[in-house]
Amino acid sequence: MRRAIMLCNQGLSFRRARAARKKLTGMNIRWAALLAAMLAGSAAQARDVDLTQETARIAADLLSKVPVRDKKIALGDFTDSDGKLTALSTLLAEDMELALVDDARKGDFKMIDRRNFGELVKEWELSVNGSVDEESLVHAGRLLGADVLCVGKYTRVGKKILLRTTLVGAEKGEILAEGSTEIRLDGDLRDLSEKIVAPAESETAAAGPKASTETLKVELWTDKASYAIGEKMTVNVRVNRDCYLTVIDIGAGNKATVLFPNLYAQNNAVKAGAAFKIPDPSAGFEFEVAAPTGLELIRAIASKEPSVDLDEAMQKPSADNPFGDVKEGLPVLTRDIHVKAKKAKPGEWSESVLKLTIR
Description:
The protein is α+β, with helices and mostly antiparallel strands. The chain is built from 8 helices and 19 strands. Strands 9, 12, 13, 14, 17, 18 and 19 form a 7-stranded mixed beta sheet that branches. Helix 2 (51-63) crosses helix 3.
């Protein structure tokens, strides 16, 4: 009898122990499943970074801070912390453009085609050796008639980047809104962040042989890179072959003026080797730097043939204004010059762009 009771008690204890182990095992399985889901979610977050969603959120945040109704927005380049264009910065810019275009459909603002913006930057040589000058981009935005420019820069920190995006007023170059966000990088994105995008070779250069002593070249310089309002300035030009020369000035206020030819030198055929000054000292007057302050561009175009014809695009020089003002929109003028450059024979077309700061 005692043995039977003991067996019964042992059986009861066994059943309770088995039930307890079963319950504990079930709990372990549920916790293990939950932990696995959390780890999987974390891994997916680290692995599957959705740049499109990130840039859409950034765009919405920036636009909520600035009234953009009836404005024109241009998207500039996104760069790394050294101002270099990378494969990742290009991807970020493309996603940002998609987000802004989508918002433009819902809102009351317009987006300037980024291809036009990029073409203008390329044409006016505002990007040098893959580095991007933000002031130059703002200037290019003004040339296209943009009211607001969106630019971005990222800093690589370990396995993530800190992306800073800014809306800049094109008229005065002031910061209207900015935001920053951290984006985790997977292996592919890390590789893209390290791949520098080389500046595109110009179509004219790609079509012809490398520069030689026979290739037409034009040099353009001033005595300083920065001028204060009221200072005197002289532009110096020299070509290595007999050619036809056109020099255009783009002021900080986007007013374009043809410096050469002018009222005092109406024939733009120039001789090789001789350096000459604009204005000519014999003209009896000087250039005095005037407002507004900012970036000023001077572009010299040398052609073996007289293919740059600005007669219809500029006001006729007069005694009151010896240098003709450009009437036509600068983007149109730029594209026209580009078309003529493409038609030129290799080595018979040359350009030089000088950037000056007016302070």
